[in-house]
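Anyone have tokens for Tetratricopeptide repeat protein 39B? Sequence:
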Amino acid sequence: MLTFIEDETLTSLIKGGMKIRNCFAMYKECHNILTQRQWESESSRVHFESGVKMGLGTFNLMISLLPGRVIKLLEFIGFSGNKQSGMQDLVAGSQSLGIRQVLCVMTLLGYNLIVCYVLSHKEGDLNFCDDLLAKQLKQYPDGVWFLFFKGRLEFMKGNLDEALMWYKKSWKSQNVWPQFHHLCFWELLWVNCLRLDWRESLLFATYLVEHSKWSRTIYTYQKASIMCMMKRSDLTSTELRTLDGLMKEVPKYKQRIAGKSLPMEKFACKKTERFFAQQSFLYVPALELMYLWNLFKILGKHFPLADGVFRIVEENLNELEARQQKKASSPLTPYDVDNKALLLLLKGAILRQMNSPLQALKCLETVVSMFKDLKEDLYLVPYAIVEIALIYVDQGKKEQAILALEDAKRNYSGYSLESRLHFRIHTALIDLKGKSYENIPAGGD
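Reply: yep, here.
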């Protein structure tokens, strides 16, 4: 999966595809064993079946989420995925008494509470997750993963105080696996960002920078971004020096995996260059990250959450426009258009969550019209077009939504975080066009 997400070269896609195909073929062979073998022990059959359901179900579900260009390649090498079949297998596995039942449950929770929110614009089935978690927490009240998923469920519902409580329970439930604490701290960081509690989120961001080895570049940039959200007058002289130091360190830790840089790390490095080009300043970088991590949909759950973020964006937009008017006689600074486009994209995205589609469209269409004047942040335009498409979806304008999504998919390339947006476009088009768009045969036989 990482091969497909991070490396778009044909060779890597074929190599990764062949490995996945071999693994999937093993699960299909296990399926044949399950159906053809004469089982002497019913308990052995039940345990084996739960593993087959987990494997086939997870493969079918995840492969169905991949963008069309990848799916066509997979079909070429004889591989296929079917979402409905995958969900059926996982649900059946989650209801069994087999030892992989827990893995089936965790896969379903992971899909509905994480994958749906990261790779698509859809909501997961939160009621289904509620029922699953009630049963699992009754059986495993201190289960670290189930406590975590309960926190995630409340987070996705927009119940931020409850989310904080469950994430902290999960974090404090064990000390054997310290890396799991980092996962909880990541979530706690963003919950506090949505609450606009920058000081509290800074504590978790600092811990991740100092203790986690996953991506020092992303962690360092996240910490610096949160510090940028505070007024400079609220930062001590030591903290201001720390902020500059963090921005200088971001590029030092950039990794290459299989010869490729991670897209989010490249994005962070570009932003640090902008920070110094603008005399140690960035416009709302933590809000930009919240948008890119697809957390804005949570804002729509509670008006006060959205209103708080909206006020910050509006304040920065007014400040930028006032500064431009003062300098009306002199040329704009190199990044003024990019900064304004970013703020308008965020404003439009928030207004969509606040059910103000006409105002949102006005902001987003302005972003699209600025494409030729953008210096660096070319990603803003295709992301704005997808936001426009989602407004059309909300209004029931299906054909216009499809046209906008196809426009974003076909007419823009080479921008930051392109693969991330293509996943979301793909899942949106499947929803709008139906199964005919997937054109994927069932993969469980």
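The longest strand covers residues 256-257.
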